[in-house]
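Q: Convert this sequence to structure tokens.
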Amino acid sequence: MKLPNPVREIRTINELLAGADAAARRMGDASPGPEHLLLAALEMDDGTARRAFARAGADPDAFEAAVATQHDAALRSIGVEPPALNPVDVDAGPPKGVFRSTPAAQRAFQEAVKLSKQVKPSRLLGAHVVVAVAEEEQGTAARTLRGMGVDAATLAGAARAEAAAARG
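A:
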């Protein structure tokens, strides 16, 4: 039995936002950014984000380490040595209160939702998050993809193809 669409969408959104928050906290960031949304999308049950990376010739499992490399490089560029993160200090337990993210993450999330509504019935997929984040030209996620040698336009195209294939 399939869940009604609104219930499924709420669960998907909760999964995505909780995953982004967990990724940010795991990496020592105060608020989730687009890179954390993308990390959460790579873990979504629909598998479309991971398949989009594979279709574009990118390793989805390398993205988190590449984000950490970008964070470290940004700190070093201003003369700050990156701190070693202790998972005990970083993980403050389950999130409390209202979900907060960076403005860039809010834009990426809104764009992903908008993309998901272009086809009826609407269904938010990890691939929609990949498109939204890949189309950002600046920021950590964009620098990370470039650093991995991933062409953002190719990745966005692969994600669009995965979203279409998931719709059947």
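Residues 4 and 10 are 10 Å apart (CA to CA).
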